[in-house]
C-alpha cells in the first residue's frame, strides 16, 4: 500500500508540474500578445504599437499612396463586399463631403486599397464612379502582384481570410499615414469624425517629407 501511495503521489506531482509549465507558457504568450496585458485583443495591440512607434511602409505601399504632402486616411476593402466595406465606402463619402465643406483637401486625402485581385482598374473606376469619389481627393487603388500585396497587408497589419462564395473576412479601420509616409495611427472605423480630426492633427504637427 505504501508503494502504491508513493507512486500516486509522484504521479500527482508530475501532473501538477506539467500543468505549471503549460500555464507558464500560456501566460507568457498572453503577456506578449497583449503587450504586457495592456490590451485585450490582437487588434488593440496593433493600434497601440503604431501609436507608440510610427511604422515605416514598404516601397509597394509608397508607390500606391504617393507623396504629395498630405496625410492619407487609408482603408482596405474589396468592391464586391456587402458588409463592412459598404460601411467604409459610405463613411468615406461623408468624410469627402466634410473635407470639401471645410476646405481641408490640401491637408488630408482618402485612399481605398483593394486586396482582391478581381478588382482591376476598370472595376475600381466603376466603383469610384458609383460612390462619386473625387479623384483629386479620394483614390482607389489595387495591388497587382501577390508578393507586393502581402507586403502591404503585413505592413498595415491587415488579415484577410477567404470565405465562402468568393467573399473575404478582414479587419477594418482607418489607417492614418503621416506626411513622412509612415503609418502613424489607427482609428476605429466606426469613428470617422475622430479619424478626420486626428488626420488634421498629424497634418499640422508632422514635418513634411522624410526626416
TrEMBL record:
<feature type="binding site">
    <location>
        <position position="85"/>
    </location>
    <ligand>
        <name>Cu cation</name>
    </ligand>
</feature>
<keyword id="KW-0186">Copper</keyword>
<keyword id="KW-0479">Metal-binding</keyword>
<dbReference type="InterPro" id="IPR013766">
    <property type="entry name" value="Thioredoxin_domain"/>
</dbReference>
<dbReference type="Pfam" id="PF02630">
    <property type="entry name" value="SCO1-SenC"/>
</dbReference>
<feature type="binding site">
    <location>
        <position position="170"/>
    </location>
    <ligand>
        <name>Cu cation</name>
    </ligand>
</feature>
<comment type="similarity">
    <text>Belongs to the SCO1/2 family.</text>
</comment>
<dbReference type="InterPro" id="IPR036249">
    <property type="entry name" value="Thioredoxin-like_sf"/>
</dbReference>
<dbReference type="InterPro" id="IPR003782">
    <property type="entry name" value="SCO1/SenC"/>
</dbReference>
<protein>
    <submittedName>
        <fullName>SCO family protein</fullName>
    </submittedName>
</protein>
<feature type="domain" description="Thioredoxin">
    <location>
        <begin position="16"/>
        <end position="205"/>
    </location>
</feature>
<feature type="binding site">
    <location>
        <position position="81"/>
    </location>
    <ligand>
        <name>Cu cation</name>
    </ligand>
</feature>
<feature type="disulfide bond" description="Redox-active">
    <location>
        <begin position="81"/>
        <end position="85"/>
    </location>
</feature>
<keyword id="KW-1015">Disulfide bond</keyword>
<dbReference type="GO" id="GO:0046872">
    <property type="term" value="F:metal ion binding"/>
</dbReference>
